[in-house]
Amino acid sequence: MGKPEIGLSVGKQIVAGRVRDNLRAYTMVFALLVIWIALAFATQGTFLEPRNLSNLFRQTAINGYLAIGMVFIITAGHIDLSVGAVAGLAGAIAAMMQVHWLPALGAAWGIEWLQPGWPTTMIAILAAVAVGTIIGFWQGFWVAYGDVPAFIVTLGGLLIFRGTILGITKGVNIGPMDPSFRGLGQSYLGFAGGMSLAVLAVAGVFAFALAARRNKIKYNLAVRPLWVDVGIAGIYSALAVGFVITMQRYRGVPLPVVFLIVVAVVFSFIFRRTQLGRYTCAIGGNLDAARLSGLNVRRVTIQIFALMGALCGLAGIILTARLNAATANAGNQFELNAIASCVIGGTSLAGGAGSIPGALLGALVMASVDNGLSMLNVQAFWQQIIKGLILMTAVLMDAKSRSSSS
Fold first, then answer.
1. Chain centroid to CA 329: how far?
2. Backbone angles phi, psi at 222, to 5 degrees
3. How many angstroms from the chain centroid is the CA of residue 178?
4. Rounded to whole angstroms, what are the CA distances from 121 to 127, 183, 314, 321, 322?
5. Which position has the higher pLDDT, 400 or 112?
6. What pTM did the predictor assign?
């Protein structure tokens, strides 16, 4: 009789641990649903119309790129206050490359393909990502080898890059962009592309669920009944199909959202399944233990800051494409939204724990609040106050969850 009772007790502990670990995610999903329902009533259903939801997800996408990178930064125990400025600078450089620098170079050298078009679009994209990566590497070097707190390094970077944007743009908008570039932020997947995305999403969800189940069985870990796993995968699949169908009712799935999905899948794999992700969690969880175990903390620090810079470059590209121009204040306060998204999504400010899906959920919460309050014509100062209260509440939840688990 003793062994079955022990097994039952262990099973209960495992279930309780899973519920405790996922409680934050469940809470945020519930909060998002409450926000959407409240805004739907307040706007007489306009908030949930396909056109507005399409704009909402496009708005979420830009912050989502930054939030993904910020998960690595915060999980490692750092902070990056310069991501908005880096994104704005990368977008400004992309615009200057396509609108002014490359055409001028082409005219001087007699090279026709340097006029606005696909070649200059590709060069501008590579330049923006390269600039972001170099900036991230540079800031990471200061943190890793200069032993300067990331808060100070990135605060200085924020001022430097904001000044650089003003110097490059002269305070005026740089545009319009070539249609090949503009399409990166304004295009949509057609019906065939949307349905293909839905099929891939369903196949990916079931493949992931079955692979996770096989791994648990392989290592003799507790598994849920098969019908439960299939049911959960079915719910996620239904949500993916519903999302695609809703987007098709307007113009299709926005291209920036497609890019975000791909980036999220890739970086979720990196964060959960690679050495870089595990080392990031180890550094944030216990820096001294990570060093004593032989982990090259400096190298990992530079890598995650370079990763953050590359994602800033991508965000800057999408932002410039969406606006069809680079502006002097592009990316303003994006760093606050990215940090808030991570904290809302369960990334601990103490380091050691983070979630990319959670950060994207947090980005959707922040975008929903922005979008809904703007639709209700709420004054700008109230919007800032409400967003600040949401961030403070999320930090309070993080502190309480850490104190209860210690």
1. 21
2. -65, 135
3. 26
4. 10, 11, 13, 11, 14
5. 112
6. 0.90
Domain map of the chain by residue range?
60-189+258-366+387-405, 191-251
Q: Which two tokens stand for residue 161?
A: 């890059």
Residues 6+ apart with CB under 8 A from 291: 297
**Pick from 340, 154, 140: nearest CA to 162:** 154
pLDDT tens for 106-145 read 888 888 888 888 999 999 999 999 999 999 999 999 999 9
Residue 303 confidence (pLDDT) above 90: yes
Contacts 24+ apart (CB under 8 A), 140-143: 140/301, 140/302, 140/303, 140/304, 140/305, 140/306, 141/302, 143/78, 143/301, 143/305
The enclosing H or E element of 136 equals helix 118-145
Distance CA 254, CA 347 (A): 27
d(CA 392, CA 233): 33
* DSSP state for residue 100 in the 8-state scheme: I
Dihedral over alpha carbons 336, 63, 309, 103 (to 10 degrees): -120
Cβ atoms within 10 Å, residue 262: 10
